[in-house]
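In the design runs reported in the main text, the only information available to the sequence generator was the tokenized backbone. The following block is the verbatim input for one such run; it is reproduced so that readers can re-run the procedure and compare outputs position by position.
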């Protein structure tokens, strides 16, 4: 049985007041949901502490949107794993497509970050996903496989218990164009088969694979009803408390269908 895991990626949005207000609205609204599913919010670095304080005691976890792999030193502008732990983080998004395609992060840097997150005792969410032109050229599987194998290089089967995979087709992120549940399921199944090849059946069956890309309260249940969709990584819709709570409720409702 995989426990559903829904995370909100706030990206470079909110200010201090609105971040705290959103965090409070989410934590006040989750009620008993955290008993049956994992919920996290991922604000910008500078609001992590305030958001962690705001959700304290609600069962809602806090994640960072990025990290640097070095522990300390002359890395101006960067944030370490220890710093994230210090302000109450549990999760760290690694290799989000904004960072791959806007900032220019490559697989080897993403892998170093993911290994540092694991070594520091936090839980990485590794994002993978193809561009539209790659899907159109039938390269979805090769792109996803390359990102998955590079991102997880050096990760042991034992460490996989702390790793979440997020499949986020780049053409569906922030575009309003969601992958159909069938399109998501096909790639999630492919990822699970790859995990089986890399780590064996037990790890593959236990690993949470989130879908991300224009998820809304109205499409969450259909996505979550797919056998290999275990959770959601939500961008835009996680900035509106009501919409995010709607997604959480729809996801909890589909939890029974999970393997
Ligand atoms: C994301 O930021 O990871 C994302 C999936 O964004 P959106 O839900 O807005 O498409």
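Verbatim output:
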């Amino acid at each position: 049985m995989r426990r559903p895991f829904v995370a909100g990626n706030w990206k470079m949005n909110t200010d201090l007041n609105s971040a705290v207000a959103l965090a409070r609205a989410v934590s006040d609204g989750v009620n008993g949901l955290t008993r049956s599913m994992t919920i996290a919010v991922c604000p910008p670095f500078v609001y992590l502490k305030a958001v962690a304080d705001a959700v304290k005691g609600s069962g809602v976890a806090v994640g960072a949107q990025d990290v640097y792999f070095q522990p300390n030193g002359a890395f101006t502008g960067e944030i370490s794993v220890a710093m994230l732990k210090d302000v109450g983080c549990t999760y760290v998004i690694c290799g989000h497509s904004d960072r791959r395609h806007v900032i220019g992060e490559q697989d080897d840097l993403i892998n170093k970050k993911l290994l540092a997150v694991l070594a520091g005792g936090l839980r990485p969410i590794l994002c993978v996903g193809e561009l539209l032109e790659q899907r159109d050229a039938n390269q979805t599987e090769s792109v996803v496989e390359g990102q998955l194998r590079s991102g997880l290089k050096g990760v042991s089967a034992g460490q996989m218990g702390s790793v979440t995979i997020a499949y986020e087709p780049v053409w569906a992120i922030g575009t309003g164009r969601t992958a159909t549940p069938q399109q998501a399921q096909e790639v999630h199944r492919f990822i699970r088969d790859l995990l089986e090849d890399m780590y064996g059946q037990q790890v593959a069956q236990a690993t949470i694979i989130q879908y991300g890309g224009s998820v809304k309260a109205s499409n969450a249940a259909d996505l979550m009803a797919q056998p290999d969709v275990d959770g959601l990584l939500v961008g835009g819709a996680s900035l509106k408390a009501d919409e995010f709570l709607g997604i959480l409720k729809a996801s909890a409702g589909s939890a029974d269908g999970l393997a």
